[in-house]
Write a structure and sequence with these properties.
CATH superfamily of the largest domain: Alkaline Phosphatase, subunit A
Structural class: alpha/beta
Number of helices: 13
CATH class of the largest domain: Alpha Beta
Distance between the termini: 50 Å
Bound molecules: calcium ion
CATH topology of the largest domain: Alkaline Phosphatase, subunit A
Length: 491
Amino acid sequence: MINRRTFLRTVSAGALGLAGATWLTGCGRTQAARSPTVKPNFVFILIDDMGWRDLACYGSTFYETPHIDRLAAQGMRFTDAYAACPVCSPTRASILTGKYPARLNLTDWIPGHKRPFAKLRVPKFNQELPLAEVTIAEALKPAGYVSASIGKWHLGTKPFWPEKQGFDVNFGGTHQGQPPSYFAPYKIPNISKAADGEYLTDRLADEAAAFIEKSKDRPFFLYLAHYAVHTPLMARQEVIAKYAAKAKPDQPQRNARYAAMVQSVDDSVGRIMATLDALGLADRTVVFFMSDNGGLIGPTSNLPLRAGKGSLYEGGIREPMIVRWPGVVPAGVTEKAVVTSVDFFPTILALAGVAPAAPDPGIDGASLVPLLAPQGEWAPVPVYWHYPHYHPGGATPGGAIRDGDYKLIEFFEDDRVELYNLKEDLGEKKDLAAAMPEKAAQLRRKLADWRRKTGARMPTPNPDYDPQKEPKRADTETPPPLADAGLLFEE
Ligand SMILES: [Ca+2]
C-alpha cells in the first residue's frame, strides 16, 4: 500500500531529480517568463476560520469575493481540500512542516482549554511548534529564498516566533490566536506605528505588498496569514452597511459584519495580485489560498456541509483551496482530488526544486505537482485526522479518515464510529456504519494503523468524570438566530 510518505519520495525522486526548475520545461507549457535558473516565488495566503462555502466561487450568494474568484478562474480550485485539524494552531503547524498534528503532538489550539470533569482526560500537547521542526522558510533558505511571515502565527511564545523558524521578517505574528482589536491600536506587540482607525486586514495587505516589492529581485516566500475572519467580528462600517442592506433573515449566511470581513480579505487578495502584476512577477509566482479550519457556526454557515469549526464533520475541516501559477497550473480547472494541508510543504519544495540534504522520514504530505503541473501520476491516498480534545462548540474527542468517497469518524468517548459516502451524501446525514460493517472495520483499522505510525496520543478515562459539572453541550449544527449571532459575537 502506498502512503503519503512513500508517495512523496517517489514524486520527489522524479521532480527533484531534474535540478532546479528545469522539470517545468518538460511539460510543454510556455516558459517565456521563466528560465531553469529562476526559482518561483511563493505567496501563501492563509485565512483564519474561513468556511468552505464562504466564497462566491464556492457557492456563497451573500459574500462578494471578486478578486478571489478571479484567482480561482486563473488557477486550480480544489473541491475536496482539507485542513489537518478543525482548529487553528495544529493546521498551521501542518502547513509549515508537512507533518500531521498527531506526529507533531500539536493537536489543539494553543493553549487549549480545560475540561476537568469530562468523560475523558485529554492528552497533553506541545504548546509551541518545536524549533527542531523544519519549516518551509527554513527549507527554502539554502536555495536563496527570503521569507516573511505577515499576520497571525499562534505557534508559541516569543522564543518560538517566526524569526526563530526561518523567517527573515515577522510582522504581527505572536502567541495570539486573535487580535484584541481589528482597528488600531491593535494591542499586538510587534505592530507599531498604526494610525488610529487603521484596519488590520488592510495593514497586513500593505505590509505584504511592501515585502513583495522589496524582494522582487530574489526568490521569496510570503506567508500572509490573515487574522480575519476570526472573531472578534469587526469591520469597516460602510462595508457592514452594504451587507446589512442585502442580508435576508431566512438565508443561512446573513451576518453583515462577517461579510464585511470576508470582503476585506478579498480586497487584500486583489491588492497582492495587483502588486504581482505591477512588478511583472505574476508568471513566476505561485499563489496558494487556503483556510486553517472550517467556518464558525453563528457568524457563518457551512451548509450544505455538516457542523463547523472544531468538528470532524466536513464543516469543520473542508476548506476553500486555490493554486495559481500562470502558464504552469492550468487556468479555470476544478480539481476533485482529496488533498490536505500537510501536502503544501512537499509541494512547495518540489516546485522550488529544493531537496533536503537529509529527507525527514516524518514528512506526511504528498507533493501536489502531479495535479498542478500536471506532471507524473497522482495516486490517491487516505487523509487522516486526530483531534483527541473537546471543543467549546460541542465536539468530543475523535479521529477520522477519508479514503476515496468514504469517510469514517471515530468517537473516543463511547468507542463508536460513523461512516459516510461523501459522493452521495455530502451533508453526512446517512450513517452507513451498520449497513456496511466491513467497510467501517477496514477504515477503522487504517485509522488505528496511522495513529500507531504517527505516535498519536490518546485520551484516557477521567477519574474525576462528573457529568453534573460538565458544561451543557452546545448544539454544534444549528446556527443561532440572527439577533443572537449579533449578540454572541459583538466585539
Ligand atoms: Ca482558525
